[in-house]
From TrEMBL:
Pfam families: ERG4_ERG24. The keyword Repeat does not apply. Its EC number is 1.3.1.71. It comes from Glomus cerebriforme. GO terms for molecular function: Delta24(24-1) sterol reductase activity. It catalyses: ergosterol + NADP(+) = ergosta-5,7,22,24(28)-tetraen-3beta-ol + NADPH + H(+). Pathway: Steroid metabolism; ergosterol biosynthesis. Keywords: Endoplasmic reticulum, Lipid biosynthesis, Lipid metabolism, Membrane, NADP, Oxidoreductase, Steroid biosynthesis, Steroid metabolism, Sterol biosynthesis, Sterol metabolism, Transmembrane, Transmembrane helix. The lineage of its organism: Eukaryota, Fungi, Fungi incertae sedis, Mucoromycota, Glomeromycotina. This is Delta(24(24(1)))-sterol reductase.
Length: 419
């Protein structure tokens, strides 16, 4: 995977960039010589990517926000860590900064899509560099946790559970502050480029900007719900999380926006679909977003209210039915509560289903000329299935008979009445 992921990223981009989305043989020498030429890392791309990451780190350190407690950390004998949740203020500061940089000509946002190949290579190199650095520092400090003894596996899964730079938690930083923001700027960059070339932004390109805006905004506005999630409390900070967040997510989830950009140049006009199809894609995105946002917030707020850790937030947008009043739940012997009301009465992973609705809408808005634009939804199905399997096994072990009762009361996993 550590070799295959980066190669796959180059391959998909190369097929889009040089072969109009046709899946050419990955053994073709011509493909790779083109990729090496066009995606060779440059100092300019290095400066863009690293200055962005450092600026986000600076914001994560200094911007104001509420402090919330995480779940008990096993490697710290059950101690709860503090998390400064300044995602929203950092996100707005980033938006304002980029507007000033672009508008006053210090850094045109179109540079991002114009330097896509080198930027992707720089992100990939950074992903590896951070993986090795974090691993070595953790071993030197003796902070390794739950090690398997197999070097490759431990590099992949990580050694440290909650590495920090001062008060910045590196795991939450890498998951929230880099990938989705970069993704948003890639599509925004492509949209501005389209506007400069054709004098307007097409509905599919505007869709991409909206879709990526919703995702990054959701991560920022509900950040206080993240410290107690599985990734924060259980997953270690290894190649899987580091590489995937610093390079994989932004540079593969953006494939649709890159496709729309390249196709508009090839065709001399932006991609357009029938009004009905465009409306269907927007409706799928917005309804998926609504369920995803409210399901996640229902579950997280339910637990926070009953644990006494809930803090009311007025970050935009607060959607109706995001907080449940007196929902039904199961009190487990272990002490935790399992929500069975709200969206959670319909399926145990209803938020994954909603996330998949959005993922498919990102593919549908690109049409059906290439399968590459369906990489994200296809890959996402694999990721979520893998997560569900691991999570179900973990919960069954953790909650025993209470989990069986929960599965009896909420029998479906993804789609109510079907599966
Ligand atoms: P979940 O939000 O599904 O968290 C799983 C944990 O929630 C379980 O281990 C359990 O933890 C607790 N839980 C499960 N059912 C209930 C319930 N009924 N009531 C209360 N608690 C429950 O996992 P993720 O962290 O995987 O997903 C969070 C969001 O992030 C999702 O919306 C997902 O779609 C999104 N995501 C997006 C990705 C992307 O690449 N776009 C990748 C991964 C996730 P406990 O031990 O505390 O009981």
């Amino acid at each position: 995977m550590m070799i295959g992921f980066p190669l796959l990223m180059f391959y998909l981009w190369g097929c889009l960039q040089f072969y109009r989305g046709k899946l050419v043989s990955p053994l073709q020498g011509e493909l790779w010589s083109k990729i090496i030429k066009e995606a060779w890392p440059t100092w300019y791309a290095t400066k863009i990517y690293l200055i962005f990451c450092l600026y986000e780190l600076f914001l994560a350190y200094f911007m104001p926000g509420p402090v919330v407690k995480g779940a008990p950390v096993a490697s710290l004998n059950g101690k709860k860590l503090d998390y400064l949740c300044n995602g929203v203020t950092s996100w707005y500061a980033t938006l304002i900064t980029s507007y000033i940089l672009h508008n006053y000509g210090y850094f045109r946002l179109t540079e991002i899509i114009d330097n896509f190949g080198p930027l992707m290579t720089v992100a990939i190199i950074t992903g590896f560099a951070v993986t090795f650095t974090v691993y070595i520092v953790t071993i030197i400090q003796g902070n390794q946790y739950r090690m398997s003894g197999n070097l490759m596996y431990d590099l992949f899964m990580g050694a440290a559970l909650n590495p920090r730079l001062g008060r910045v938690d590196l795991k939450i930083f890498a998951e929230i502050r880099v990938p989705w923001v970069v993704l948003f700027y890639i599509s925004t960059s492509a949209a501005i480029k389209e506007y400069e070339m054709f004098g307007y932004v097409s509905a599919p390109m505007a869709f991409m900007v909206l879709a990526h805006f919703l995702y990054v905004n959701a991560c920022a506005k509900g950040e206080e719900c993240i410290p107690t999630t599985w990734d924060m409390t259980y997953e270690k900070f290894g190649f899987m999380l580091i590489f995937w967040n610093l390079a994989g997510v932004p540079f593969t989830y953006c494939i649709g926006a890159v496709y729309l950009h390249i196709t508009s140049i090839d065709n001399g006009r932006p991609v357009q679909h029938s009004t009905a199809w465009t409306c269907f894609c927007y409706a799928l995105l917005i309804s998926g977003y609504y369920i995803w946002d409210t399901a996640n917030s229902q579950k997280n707020r339910f637990r926070m209210i009953l644990n006494g850790t809930y803090i009311p937030r007025y970050t935009f947008p607060q959607l109706p039915w995001g907080t449940l009043k007196n929902p039904s739940y199961i009190k487990t012997k272990q002490g935790n509560l399992l929500l069975t009301g709200g969206w959670w009465r319909y399926a145990r992973k209803i938020h994954y289903t909603a996330d998949l609705m959005m993922a498919f809408s990102w593919g549908f808005i690109c049409g059906f000329n290439t399968v590459i634009t369906y990489f994200y939804p296809a890959f996402f199905i694999v990721v979520l299935t893998h997560r569900v399997t691991r999570d179900m096994e973990r919960c069954a072990r953790k909650y025993g008979k209470d989990w069986d009762e929960y599965c009896r009361q909420v029998p479906y996993i993804f789609i109510p009445g079907i599966y």
